[in-house]
Amino acid sequence: MFRPVRSIRLPLHTAVKYRALATAPKFPVHAQGILPTSQSPIVSELQFFNSVTGGAGQIPTYRVLDGAGVPIDGAEVPEINEEFAQKLYEHMQLLPTLDNILYNVQRQGKISFYMTAYGEEATIIGSAAALAPDDEVLGECQYREMGVLLWRGFGINGVMAQCFGNQEDKSGKGRQMPMHFGSPQHHFHTISSTLATQIPQAAGVGFALKRDPARRDKNVAVVYFGEGAASEGDFHAGMLLASTIPSPTVFLARNNGFAISTPSSEQYYGDGIAARGPGYGVDTVRVDGNDILAVMNAVKEAKRRCLEGGRAVLVEAMTYRVGHHSTSDDSFAYRGRQEVENRKKIDNPITRFRLYMESKGWWSEQHEEDLKARLKKDVMQAFKRAESLKRHDLRELFTDVYGGEEPWNIREQREELAGLLKKYGQVWEPWRNELAAFKDGGEKVGGPPS
Amino acid sequence: MFVPNTKLALRTAKQRIPLLLQSSAPPRRWQSTVEGKVEPPPAGGHLPSIATSKMLRTTRDDALRTPGLAWTDDDDSTGAVRNIVGGRETRKMNMYQAVRDALSIALAKDDTAVVFGEDVAFGGVFRCTMGLAEEFGRERVFNTPLTEQGIAGFGIGIASMGHTAIAEIQFADYIFPAFDQIVNEAAKYRYRAGGQFNIGGLTIRTPTMAVGHGGLYHSQSPEGYFMGASGLKIVIPRSPIQCKGLLLAAIRDPNPVIFMEPKILYRSAVEQVPIDDYTLPLGRAETLIPGADLTLLSWGTPLYTCTTALSLLSSPPPALAPLVPAALRGARVELIDLRTVLPWDVEGVVASVERTGRLVVVHEASVTAGVGAEVAAEVQKRCFLKLKAPVKRVAGWDVPAGLQYEKFNMPDAIRILDGLIETLSY
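The joint structure predicted for all components is written out below.
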């Protein structure tokens, strides 16, 4: 075991490039009037500014627990009991358990793709825990929000079914790559691989919630995205819409330092994502994303403000992507192994919370061993089950393209494939092998519309 | 609809294509991997793969004699083209290395050239820009923030100043945020300025097509979406030699070019590539296999699937043999690589169909309003009286590219084979 440090001095990746001069506008003691139809004081001094902090420093980061799991001076620890704390911790630990196994499963070629959430457990579980189970979540942009669904009871089997794309995959009937979950029952809109597209959609979801009398005082929309996705035009559109057309939407940026290989220092020149919030008139906070209690407090307050003001709120959670971008990536091609190792040891969100729990007498070495063994057993069991199941019917290739009546082209193409399968399905080996993987063996492709 | 009754198909074939039966020339089994042996390959066994494809030029001599190749020599001040092959060298490259080689030449020869896009500086997610940042500096080879519309717009601005902008959109599936910049700006830039401004220096490279496990957003072939954007050129190479020559031509073409690189070929397609600077012509299709009975037209990855289908047609494995009429096995199919999708080589394609009377177009994009639709419309207009069968399109169905369903969505060898049989026996 390493010795945790109380004050984490590792520079945040975003802060690596300190800007030479951050200047905020100075406000005159004696304004020479106000610009008509505004609150802008008239001044005689020509001044440019590039900071929202009112000084040379960067936007501060909110934290509750220090690196050793001890509340920092003046921090308000959220009121959680032993049971709840253990639930938080279990879910944090479940993520790397799934990651370890599924990463290797992908390496064995059993699933096509995987993305780990190493290092971001506190941001994901902490935010999930701060929300109501029926707040509408639009997770995407880095596809690392599996933990939110798990917190809401989606279940390990649901995760496995989606990753294997088997007949139990309700998320997308095996149509999408692994990690593209979705579940209306869990108020989690289906993930798309495209970056940032769901950010303006989240504003629309918030708007719709506000129009629904049964939900307007209760629920918000929440959209997760990385600091890379925040460079897309859709980010700006979403923030602008949710503030201008008041829509209760929490914008949750997970600033993990990298967009595939591109470090955040090449992603933006300003003070992170948080600096953009005030530009849209949006309440904004930067939080230590490796401190689960800080994330909980920040997201809880963000939701409260969202409901109260009926407008967007921006939370920037500072964390670090310990894993590779995905199984298609080897991050040591662009960052040092040691850098990653240091981050894992010095600033590990799971360890930080465990130390806090230990200090309260809520966790022990025995708990840890039991939990890890149980999680591993559960995940392995679900993996074996998912692996043995067949895919959906091949017919599903053609369903859900449209609702309502099946258009002529889809119907004819479905029938054409059915004819081809009848002709070649058993004599063309690549098709015969592939057909065996589907529940209907291809038998149901033809026939009348469902 | 296809004809499931093979006897009927055979009879129809005999009636309709007596030429085939009379042909004295032995059927061309150019794809046969075991020459001289009579035993047919087992299903899925000896079929041509990308790695072993005869389309790839794997010897120096073969590579240097690539049709249409024009050398761009440094000492070419006289304007005379040296078509000398002797003394020129080749190097074994896969397609991402060929891209890198072309970019390196473009950067070395043109001081205004810059290469940029997401993750480009460390070499790009497909390794196409590996080492370029180190070689030419981060000022000329650089990462952009994650914004496709920004990348396209930035490139347009650079090109409007007469510079050479070589932008990368990380996946063709992600080109759509840049659609406005490409369709409303890049394509119309020259026209709206009355010819005063142009952005001919812009080239947008983007990996395209399916790989077998890409799902909805890493499998698409979006070339068809740009067909209506006159002012653009769209180029899709099939191999390393083609990629280098066409990319250099695209970079130097006086028009904005979208250069779509079939991503499955980055590693799998390997050729001896000439190390000198050369271009291959845009707007010209290339005949890969000459034939007289049917024109098979495609571009990018499906060309390899087409050669597999041709192999199945000429020497079907025993299990398939009953479904492939013997009379059709000797059919001489002309395989054409369209290469430039916009503006496409109507002259070359029509000349072929005038001779063969039959056309099958293969593409991965959905059949509706795909490039095949445009080709079919033009060919039926120009070859109406010569056509012996309707133009057949073998393409993706009108559904998104579902992950687990890909083998039954993409036009695979058996579907192409069926399309060939149907068209030959019409």
